[in-house]
Amino acid sequence: MLFRRSTAVAPQPEPLAPIVLKIEGREVVVSLRRHPRARRYTLRVRAVERDVVLTLPSRGSVREAHAFAQRYTGWIAARLSRLPERVALEPGALLPLRGVPHRIVHRPDRRGMVWPEVAGGEPVLCVAGELPHVARRVTDFLKREARRDLTEASRRHAAALGVAIGRITLRDTASRWGSCSSNGGLSYSWRLILAPPFVLDYLAAHEVAHRREMNHGPAFWATVDRLFPEREQAERWLRSHGASLHRYGERAGG
Length: 254
Ligand SMILES: [Zn+2]
Known about the structure:
Layout: E1 19-23, E2 26-35, E3 42-46, E4 51-57, H1 62-71, H2 73-81, E5 94-97, E6 100-107, E7 114-119, E8 122-128, H3 134-161, E9 168-171, E10 178-180, E11 186-189, H4 197-209, H5 218-227, H6 231-241
Parallel strand pairs: 2-4, 6-8, 9-11
Antiparallel strand pairs: 1-2, 3-4, 5-6, 7-8, 10-11
Helix pairs in contact: 3-4, 4-5
Bound molecules: zinc ion (ZN).
Zinc ion binds at residues 1, 206, 210, 216.
């Protein structure tokens, strides 16, 4: 998952200095990448990373890239302005937990805990302790819950398939929701705890199925479908809403 194959030989481009554009009084950094198979200059505004990448053809010039970026400042500005707002994990913020929006509520009178409850008919996530620690406490809580749900789901699918799984690692990667190593180690994005449970369950089925088939061939998909028949629905959810899971809190990169 998610279909970024590592079989192709990765290009090793020389590092190019980024371009800094002035757009509406703000500095916007555009990273330059040279790609041997690119035929023209292309611009991308990446939603998850919230950055701008300009790809040059192998024989393209940096000067031409500058002119290209300048020509498209309007387009870049429009794209950047349409990115969803980041949501800081602070009191008052709305945060999805297992797909259900929870309001973060600070409870300084209580000690060192985070717990969900329903207050006034609204699901809330209560955070004890001091205000400067709220964001870290919420993140730690989400990672703990993610580990619990992903461990349970991975073990359940592994038992159904009759395969062994290794260590479960949580990451915060922009490019993939999960991966499975040849020794059975499973790695997942902790942000899956923000998605509806069927999405997390699908990712666990997907990675566990790689214990049988280390590829995305027909036998692999047949195995996934046996473990998790609602695959299409889960993938559709990820395509439509996956990027939005990266809005919450700090992104660790990677
Ligand atoms: Zn896969």
